[in-house]
Amino acid sequence: MTNESVMSPVISLAGVVKSYGDLTVLHGVDLHVERGELAAIVGPSGSGKSTLLNLIGTLDRATSGTVRVAGRDVGALNDQQLSALRARHLGFIFQQYHLAPGRSALDNVADGMLYAGLPQSERRKRAASALERVGLGHRAGHRPCELSGGEKQRVAVARAVVGEPDLILADEPTGALDTKSGEAVMGILRDLNADGATIVIITHDQAIAASLPRQVRVRDGQVIDDRGPVIAA
Length: 233
Ligand code: ADP
Ligand code: MG
Fold this sequence. Notes:
This protein has helices at residues 3-7, 49-56, 79-89, 105-110, 120-133, 149-161, 179-194, 206-211; strands at residues 11-20, 23-33, 38-42, 64-69, 72-73, 90-94, 167-171, 198-202, 214-219, 222-227. The protein is an alpha/beta fold and 233 residues long. It has one domain (36-59, 78-227): P-loop containing nucleotide triphosphate hydrolases (Rossmann fold, 3-Layer(aba) Sandwich), CATH 3.40.50.300. Strands 6-7-8-3-9-10 form a 6-stranded mixed β-sheet, sandwiched between helices. Strands 2-1-4-5 form a 4-stranded antiparallel β-sheet, covered by helices on one side. A hairpin with a 2-residue loop joins strand 4 and strand 5 (72-73). Helix 5 crosses helix 6. It binds adenosine-5'-diphosphate (ADP) and magnesium ion. Adenosine-5'-diphosphate is lined by residues 20, 23, 25, 43, 45-51.
């Protein structure tokens, strides 16, 4: 790891604008997230939360402004460098799980490391232990259609963390789940954060947002309120 990535915030956005044609969705966002934070992004539907998370996750590029992730100015990286950054540093969790339907839970998780350059046997071993970690060791051979929503999301969490990313980005991870399954997923994310992962979660759930140390409030493409960061000294 370079000195730079140790010293700087995990996420650092300055004056970030995102436009789709004539439609400007983000109007100059500044946001800094330090290593070890657990932060919520909240705001009305259509306010730009997913757009913001996708820029942080390097799934999309800013129209202007600077996006730094894990100490790298992602605007300066080519697609191959971005892929490497994602594989090494980022884990994603989506509301609709995004699991491959025909593949077992184990294969879905092992595929999360396809770009890590590990032999298949090692990938499967690590995938099995990631499934254990989310309490699904006994479901490793099941395909997504044989799992409940909560179990599917726990598989998706296992896939996101199997490469031991420093930053986990979750877009409404409990949005499709009942309260109990949602709490199970949140419990796993809290444990991962306690183990050192930096986590940013978009949520509509006021109770979840209020329970997190930091809430970033987005409205009409701008950060209008930011409680925190709260980091133990
Ligand atoms: P949120 O996640 O807060 O609900 P989004 O970031 O998904 O909001 O969307 C913000 C705005 O950007 C919306 O008006 C949406 O229609 C628009 N938008 C998002 N993605 C695209 C796209 N690829 N092309 C055009 N408009 C988009
Ligand atoms: Mg969204």
